[in-house]
Amino acid sequence: MIQDISKKIAFLKANPKILKSIFRGIERETLRIEKNGSFSKKMHPYLIGSPLTHRWITTDFSENLLEFITPTSNNIDYLLSFLKDLHCFTALKTKNELMWPFSIPYFYESKTNIPIAQYGNSNLGKMKTIYRIGLKNRYGDLPNTISGVHYNFSLPVIFWDHWKKTTNKKNNTDYVSACYLNLMRNYYRFGWIIPYLFGASPAISPSFLKNKKTKYLFKKNKENILYLPWSTSLRLSDIGYTNVNSIDLNIMFNDLNSYIKSLKKAIETPSKQFINIGLKDINGNFKQLNTNILQMENELYIQIRPKRKTNNGESLIEALKNRGIEYVEIRSLDINPFSPIGISKKQILFLDLFLIWCALIDLPQIDTMDFSLTNKNWETIIFEGRKPNQEIYINNKYEKKTLIEVSKIIFKDLDQIASILDYNEDNVLYQKTCHEMKLFFQDPDLTYSAQFLKFLIRSGIKKTGLYLANKYHKKFIDKNYLNINQNILEKETIRSHQKTKKIEESDMLSFEQYIKK
Fold first, then answer.
1. Residue 229 above 70 pLDDT?
2. With helix as H, strand as E and coil as C, how does 453-474 read?
3. Looking at the domain assignment, is residue 1 inside a domain?
4. CB 298 within 8 A of CB 315
5. Domain Glutamate--cysteine ligase, which positions (predicted)?
């Protein structure tokens, strides 16, 4: 079922320093809310910078949906410290607002106005706004306000240099891309472990179920919030936010060329459903960037994506084609409500272990049947992951094992990888994290989703959400005097507004010409 990687782990033990410099980045989304829990009606605050050009603070779908982006770093503590400083800086500039601590917006009325994110008058800014208008017209505005955390991960160059010597591969770019795609296939195969451990959206607002059919029987709390007793992350389900099926697009992560080809085809292929929406309204305003299956690469919402830093004027597809995969983006993390900044060090340590493990397991190319079974496993964990003696498929012969049985096999390897990483750091944090996560399988009540359900039923979502939002806001304000990046962020705010103005003044094309180009 799972490949024996003892020889590979032995190689790492003999060469531990090749894992010394893992690079990471975090993107955290959060809704700005009023003191009573309602969606903020204010535009993106000028005092925290231009969302078009600010390096670290921007917006996602709507004006009130903040996105914090850390620099890339090989130091976990620096990464978390910078993310905390972004929160402190923003809280200081928006004292009369709070940040919603959950992934799901639970209190929403049909009359609620959700303003689409605005990025100024430049062609680039208009394009970003119209892309979001397209998302609203295609999938609705409420689903687009669901928040998450994205974790960017890359193994050290020295790791690939040493690892390549164990094979007969020559071309480094193709080799590294192939290895990252292998990691991604394994993530799809076993990545359900992430929502099992860290999923924190076992409940959802009734607004999300309108016009949707589901085979699951939801219960209600006193606030009329719907929940499932064994669920982990409804955010990742088809009643949360999903748009396209990777199988339908023939995206299997088997090789980079086929991935690029399939993604490019989706961007260029008209969709009957989206043609019916229309490209423009009667006044000539764009309703979406185009009527194709995907407006652009970013619209491919999947659990993990291959990424590469792009050059000016270069698309992600071009960057991947020209220089290969540089890192992977994990997109299946709910907001951690027990952390003021939405993610904890413990989660990062476990993600490191698990992603290294995914890189070590050789997984041949997969077909639609394999991918369909992995999707079934994700669905099982998302909706009923904490159910006693829960089983998942272990191969395409439809054989099953319990989560506890599968987890024991995985953690046997993770324990050894943890000792290697701890050797590099001269501590035992990875091993300690590994031990704690093992307990989550022995006792599902320890999982984030189980803890979430406890206060959903005991205290209610609104009371708990506002309590946490106020608690974290006060902590951000109180700790802002320790914000070592305060001056950097003040300067970046000024620079971002200047940069946006410069972009607007430099436009030479009409917007129609810009879109065609």
1. yes
2. HHHHHHCCHHHHHHHHHHHHHH
3. no
4. no
5. 14-381
The answer for residues whose C-beta is within 8 angstroms of residue 437's C-beta and 6 or more apart is 197, 350, 411
The DSSP annotation for 196-234 comes to HHH--B-EE-GGGGTT---SS--EE-TT--EE-TT-SBG
Average pLDDT over all residues of the chain: 93
> 3-state DSSP call for residue 127?
helix
Give the residue numbers spanning the domain of 501.
6-516
Q: What are phi and psi of 24, to 5 degrees?
A: -140, 160
Calculate the dihedral angle through the C-alpha atoms of 460, 465, 467, 473, rounding to the nearest 10 degrees: 180
C-alpha neighbours within 13 Å on the C-beta side of residue 334: 34
133 and 279 Cβ atoms separated by less than 8 Å: no
What pLDDT score was predicted for residue 391?
96
Would you place residue 239 in the very low, low, confident or very high pLDDT band (cuts 50, 70, 90)?
confident
The number of folded domains in the chain is 1
pLDDT of residue 168: 62
Q: What is the pLDDT of residues 172-191, one digit of tens each?
A: 679 999 999 999 999 999 99
Q: Is residue 411 part of a domain?
A: yes
Query: What three-state secondary structure class fits 106?
Result: coil
